[in-house]
Design brief:
α2 runs parallel beside α7. The protein has a seven-stranded mixed beta sheet. The protein is 36% helix and 22% strand. It has one domain: Formyl transferase, N-terminal domain (Rossmann fold). The protein has 200 residues and is α/β, with parallel strands linked by helices. The longest helix is centred in the C-terminal third of the chain and has 24 residues. It is built from seven helices and seven strands, in the order αβαβαβαβαβαββα.
Length: 200
């Protein structure tokens, strides 16, 4: 993938950060972390929109706290919902998307519209353990290491080009809960680092 650059219009208008939308479904700890990252001077992104597929996503509280526009879509009619989301992204001039615990699979058409500009963080060392229950799989298989991966989003789940990984050592005492906590700490470091790598 080529590095993402400011286009000519953005250069002319003096914009220095890429308008970004974050898609969430749950607690939003990575969303909160990305907001904090976006506030630092060297960050290449600004968080301008958060999209959730459920009203119960606890992470939406951070949109209120940081005065970020939020929108909830129910995805009952998947095709129409994606169309509405694309309209909103265009209206808000969003040029980059970060998935952070988003529990819906985006369509081939949607991904094509944002080709190379959607990234995701996954709680395993891809290509191992795509999909769900990654922590249990690592423990069951008695892996020495697990971790997290930031990758580009493609139409095939968790198969896009890897941007960065971070390893986490497993111990005999680890449970899916304890391992998830250890990996989440590394996710909070890895996601901003991967974004810096993309844009610099």
């Amino acid at each position: 993938m080529e590095k993402i650059r400011l286009n000519s219009m953005e250069k002319l208008t003096g914009l220095s950060k890429f308008k970004t939308a974050v898609f969430i479904s749950g607690t939003g700890s990575n969303f909160k972390n990305l907001i904090k990252f976006s506030k630092i001077k060297k960050s290449p992104i600004s968080i301008n929109l958060v999209i959730s597929n459920t009203h119960s996503a606890k992470g939406l509280i951070y949109a209120d706290q940081y005065k970020i526009k939020k929108k909830i879509f129910n995805f009952k009619n998947f095709k129409e919902t994606e169309k509405d989301i694309l309209t909103l992204l265009k209206k808000e001039k969003i040029s980059f998307i970060c998935l952070a615990g988003f529990m819906k699979i985006l369509s081939k058409n949607f991904i094509k519209k944002f080709n190379g500009k959607i990234i995701n963080i996954h709680p395993s060392l891809l290509p191992r353990y795509k999909g769900l229950n990654t922590h249990q799989k690592a423990i069951t298989n008695k892996d020495d290491f697990s971790g997290c991966t930031v990758h580009y989003v493609t139409e095939k789940i968790d198969t896009g080009k890897i941007i960065m990984k971070k390893r986490v050592k497993l111990t005999a005492k680890d449970t899916p809960v304890s391992l998830a906590k250890k990996i989440l700490k590394q996710e909070h470091k890895l996601y901003p680092a991967a974004i810096m790598k993309i844009f610099n």
